[in-house]
Amino acid sequence: MTAASAFAAALDQAQRTVSPISQLAGDAPIGLDRAYATQHALIARRLGRGERAVGVKLGFTSRAKAVQMGVDDVIIGTLTDAMRIEDGGVFDPSRAIHARVEPELAFLLGAELDASAAGDPMAAVAGVAPALELIDSRFRDFRFSLDDVVADNASAAGFVIGPWTSPAALGDGLDNRAVTLEFDGRQTAIGSTGAILGDPRRALTAAARLAAAHGFALRAGTVLLAGAATAAVPVPARGLVEASVTGLGRVSVRIG
Ligand code: OOG
User: Fold this and answer.
1) CATH code at 117?
2) 100 lines ligand 1 (CB under 6 A)
3) Domain range spanning residue 25?
4) 40, 71, 89, 214: which one has the fewest Cβ atoms less than 10 Å from its Cβ?
5) How far apart are CA 255 and CA 240, in angstroms?
6) For residue 197, how many other CB atoms are within 10 A of its CB?
7) Is the CB–ligand 1 distance for residue 69 below 6 Å?
């Protein structure tokens, strides 16, 4: 049986050399536990090179994404400081195999988010922001099983966070706000925050459950990407990609 460390080495090499690889175990699934062990080993390699873990991301919290990729379980991955791009900054698509972009919502934890804690998970949230996520599967043709994509750190490649709004200033709920994705001012995708588990606050509960089950920490200061509100769109060769969420503002990244 191939060890998680060997899978991690292959995924790490694929990312660093921008060369896609075959799915990890073909038709024989590697199993969710070994998939998360692989992801942790992959992140350990990155932390060993000096990166810092700064957050987590959820995948497949929306139907649009689950249908697009043919999987239907929510998954969790790790964000490092090296993946962060400042709002309005640049993403170089030549560093990715076949990058796609998704409009999202981000949470900033002001306190530890604990799966066993009762009550409103928003109590642990210090800020909410519009976000863009760049994903890039290390697997050929962007095709994978659930275990593969877990091992591949949920396809994480980059993320951009817009302006934070404090929960006290949010006003209306978070469950029905329009989300748009624009390329050079042209609308490319439109969705609703309600696409994220019916209400993105449920992403907090899901993250707490997955973190407890699979060995992730959700401490104060953690950024949490709640998952895409629309299907992912291939990044253009160059140009400006922007997302907006009603009442939360805009966030952008320049491709090129
Ligand atoms: C996996 C990542 C999914 C989301 O927001 O659902 C994801 C992928 O589709 O490659 O980030």
Assistant:
1) 3.90.850.10
2) no
3) 4-255
4) 89
5) 6
6) 22
7) yes
